[in-house]
Design goal:
The complex is a heterotrimer. Chain A is an alpha/beta fold. Chain A has five helices and five strands; from the N terminus they run E-H-E-H-E-H-E-H-H-E. Chain A has a single domain, classed as HUPs (Rossmann fold), CATH 3.40.50.620. Chain A has a five-stranded parallel sheet, with helices on both faces. Chain A is globular, with a radius of gyration of 14 Å. By secondary structure, chain B is mainly alpha-helical. The radius of gyration of chain B is 27 Å and the shape is flat. Chain C contains 22 helices and two strands. The chains are: A alpha/beta, B mainly alpha, C mainly alpha. Chains in contact: A-B, A-C, B-C. Chains A and C meet through loops of A and loops of C.
């Protein structure tokens, strides 16, 4: 059993990481940091640079949590990929970060977070960027 | 498409470098990143990695097949050139030059078939090869339909097929971008440049 | 100083607003193409050939040339920032350029590459300015015998120096020569290989072949490419190398310019070989060769200088002798033919505006590239975020619709699709498409020169060896043809004694 964190190099992603580390400490489970980006382009801003991922893994390790980092690319739908990973890692909890989006924004651009929430088959913890302190 | 699994027990040695390509890799807890090691590859190792990433090569059949096609082509060109009349170097007929080239082609084809049979330059046709085939079909359809119904609709269909089915874009972005692209081409070729491309609207 | 007059007139031609605009357009498109993996400068030039129909020959070549050497600049950006070579000639830049980027000195690497490219390109142009008229005047004495020998040698060199199976490259060249015979025979008026088709009676047009084999073939091939994982966008700071770095790299820049200049003139040579040779030379010369592969400035500056110098000097055989040195030059040759200009030694004298206009546009183009490449790096990296799935149909449509505008005929579009299939299959089966286009372009010239020389010699093929120049050229031809066979025989003997290290094949996509 492990905790899956959906990580992107943004405040929402960092918030999710903080919450994920806290949960992993509480439940005494492993942490899996997932940074997934769309296939097809050479550069994608959802991809976290190596040093950011290193720091993330270090934070977790310092908190005494066993951590692993994966960067699986996705083709059509991030939610599908993410939930596949959760299934394979036998996740007890999914942690994702939320950013504020207006109604129109959500409609036009869609929301990975919304799809993950709707389609998940296990508990999901959604954390806002500013309220990440426990 | 299943992701590369995260298994914390992967040894971070040379072996993991090959696996660290188009997916993820799991480092030892809190330990060094495999991608950091990957970045430290020497030029020779980097070149070797690129070799690994190349598409799988087809077997000996591909070489034989292509050589036979070349032979067939060369022989038919040769026969046709003889029909055209060869003449002599002093008084050449139209067939002389093509005859010379077809001879060279036949010789090269034989050479490739026999002496070059260990050549493995050809690439395998994988499931991914359906993509160019689909692309080709859409292009052929466009060529066939363009004179009759103009370029807009076939172009739109081509864009949609290429973006959605060959490129795994979402329906939303496919439709929006396709419409924009066809509109832009309409504006460019019909309105701005005033070419005589067959168009419907 | 009289001989500088046409040179100065050339500047007047370049500074006309239309030509300046097309130069800018060419180098920008070239940089873009260099940055984006997938399409190369040859494919882009082929696809944009229809654009050259309605402009002056000078303007057309200025733009196409800009695309060519602009792409050498652009390919460096992805090499340094993403460890992914955008062009074959930027492959060696990855080794040290990316390491510099990892140390936070991406700007240094890019700056060194830009400066080196500029110096290399400019040095090559200066060399061109002085060498070209010399070669052209020497070649004015060439008769049909010399031309046949030269064309044959050129085709052979391009086919054999390109990596991959040489036999297959030669087969491609032979096919190109055959395709050139389709249509009406110039000497007797009879139709050859037309199978009764009226459209084929006028021969196959060069542009649909180029667009199909290079353009559509490449697009179809890229559809099959295995997907790569995306990388994070990199930030580029300190976009100027330090004094110390510049000093360290200055020697390599100088050497790279000279090496690239001479390697580019050789048919079949070109930017890729020049960059690899420069890297090897710098590594040998260095007092601490261990630095290479870990971020040595010379490892970036040298190859980048050499590849730009070679790209520029590869124009020399085309503009002075009328012999294209590589596939991209074959496209330029074809573009000139479309405009009714036959490249050859007479070009310098009969069309000085064209010749010097093109040459001087390269000065301007290099300056433009230097100015743009550093500030615009961020912009180009942003462009990399566009997914291939969106670019592919756009380029395919540009190709198809552009093909229609050549002659307002669907037949040309059909030809493009047919040759697109052929181009794709050729790439799949390991046949280089470049020699085919080169041989096609030279096919008419070769056949007419051969027939004319045979007429002169009264049907005696040994007449070629009677004339000194053609004899030498044919001798070189024979040497180049049998050299690989001799080499493999010698290598087999040596293989018993020592182990041959595997050399990596990098395809010359020019």
């Amino acid at each position: 059993m492990s905790i899956i964190v959906g990580f992107v190099p943004t405040p929402a992603g960092e918030a999710a990481l903080t919450a994920g580390i806290a949960e992993a400490q509480l439940r005494k489970q492993d942490l899996v940091i997932v940074n997934s980006a769309r296939e097809g382009a050479l550069v994608d801003k959802a991809v976290a640079p190596d040093d950011v991922l290193e720091r993330a893994a270090q934070r977790a390790a310092e908190a005494g949590v066993t951590v692993s980092v994966i960067q699986p690319p996705y083709q059509h739908d991030l939610a599908d990929e993410f939930l596949d990973v959760a299934r394979e890692a036998n996740a007890s909890l999914i942690v994702i970060g939320l950013r504020h989006r207006s109604q129109v924004g959500k409609f036009i651009l869609g929301s990975h977070a919304q799809r993950i929430l709707m389609q998940a088959d296990r508990p999901v913890l959604a954390v806002k960027a500013d309220g990440a302190h426990f | 498409m299943t992701p590369v699994k995260a298994t914390p027990a992967v040894p971070a040695g040379e072996g993991s470098h090959a696996a660290a390509r188009s997916g993820g890799d799991a480092p030892l807890p809190g330990a060094t990143f495999p991608s950091a090691d990957v970045d430290d590859l020497t030029p020779e190792q980097l070149a070797a990695q690129w070799e690994e990433e190349k598409p799988p090569s087809a077997g000996p059949l591909a070489n034989a097949a292509s050589s036979l096609v070349v032979l067939g082509l060369g022989l038919s060109a040769l026969v046709l050139s003889v029909v055209m009349g060869l003449g002599s170097p002093a008084a050449p007929q139209p067939g002389l030059w093509p005859f010379l080239i077809s001879c060279v082609m036949v010789a090269l084809g034989l050479f490739q078939l026999v002496i070059g049979r260990h050549n493995r330059d050809a690439e395998k046709f994988t499931r991914m090869s359906m993509a160019p085939l689909t692309g080709l079909v859409t292009l052929a359809l466009m060529v066939a339909l363009m004179p009759m119904i103009g370029f807009e609709l076939p172009a739109l269909a081509l864009c949609i097929v290429w973006m959605r089915f060959l490129g795994s874009e979402t329906w939303r972005s496919t439709l929006v971008v396709s419409a924009a692209v066809v509109g832009a081409f309409y504006g460019l070729f019909v309105l701005a440049l005033n070419t005589s491309i067959p168009h419907l609207f | 100083m009289d001989f500088l007059n046409p040179v100065l007139n050339g500047f007047a031609v370049v500074l006309e607003p239309t030509n300046l605009l097309y130069c800018l357009v060419g180098v920008v498109i070239g940089m873009l193409i260099g940055v984006l993996p997938g399409l190369g400068p040859a494919a882009t030039i082929a696809i944009l050939l229809p654009l050259t129909y309605n402009v002056e020959p000078v303007t057309a070549i200025i733009m196409l040339a800009g695309i060519f050497y602009g792409a050498q600049y652009g390919g460096t950006i992805t090499s340094v920032l993403l460890r992914l070579p955008g062009e074959a000639s930027s492959v060696v830049t990855v080794f040290d350029g990316y390491q510099l980027a990892r140390k936070g000195k991406a700007g240094t690497a890019l700056g060194l590459a830009s400066i080196g490219s500029f110096v290399g390109g400019t040095a090559a142009i200066i060399g061109l300015t002085f060498l070209a008229p010399l070669v052209a005047s020497f070649a004015l004495d060439f008769g049909p015998a010399e031309y046949s020998a030269l064309a044959l040698l050129g085709i052979l060199l391009v086919a054999t120096i390109s990596s991959g199976s040489k036999t297959k490259a030669l087969i491609a060249a032979a096919l190109g020569l055959l395709l050139a015979t389709v249509g009406r025979d110039a000497f007797t008026g009879e139709t050859r290989y037309t199978f009764g088709s009226l459209e084929l009676a006028d021969g196959i047009d060069f542009v649909p072949i180029a667009m199909g084999i290079f353009g559509l073939g490449e697009i179809l091939y890229n559809l099959e490419e295995r997907h790569r994982a995306a990388k994070a966008p990199s930030k580029v700071a300190n976009v100027w190398p330090s004094r110390a770095d510049l000093k360290q790299a200055s020697g390599s820049i100088g050497r790279g310019s000279i090496l690239g200049f001479f390697l580019g003139i050789l048919p079949g040579g070109g930017a890729t070989i020049a960059s690899m040779a420069s890297y090897a030379m710098e590594k040998k010369r260095a007092k601490q060769p261990e630095r290479f592969g870990k971020g040595a400035p010379e490892g970036v500056a040298g190859p980048e200088t050499a590849n730009n110098a070679a790209a520029t000097s590869s124009f020399i055989p085309l503009l002075t002798l009328g012999i294209p040195a590589n596939a991209t030059m074959a496209l330029m040759f074809g573009a000139l033919l479309i405009q009714g200009v036959t490249p050859g030694p007479q070009l310098v004298d009969e069309n000085p505006d064209l010749f010097w206009g093109v040459v001087n546009s390269m000065y301007i183009g290099n300056i433009l590239l230097l100015i743009m490449s550093l500030p615009l790096v961020g912009l180009f990296v942003k462009i990399l975020r566009v997914r291939a799935a969106i670019l592919a149909p756009i380029t395919a449509l540009i190709t198809l619709l552009g093909a229609y505008t050549i002659n307002n005929s669907m037949f040309d579009v059909t030809l493009v699709v047919v040759f697109g299939i052929i181009g794709y299959l050729m790439k799949k089966f390991g046949f280089e498409p470049g020699p085919l286009v080169l041989a096609f372009v030279l096919g008419q010239l070769l056949e007419s020169s051969l027939r004319r020389s045979l007429l002169v010699f009264g049907g005696d093929p040994m007449g070629f060896f009677g004339r000194p120049i053609s004899a030498t050229l044919l001798l070189v031809f024979v040497l180049v043809a049998v050299l690989p066979a001799i080499k493999t025989m010698l290598a087999k003997r040596k293989a018993a004694a020592a182990q041959e290290p595997e050399t990596v094949q990098i395809k010359e996509k020019v």
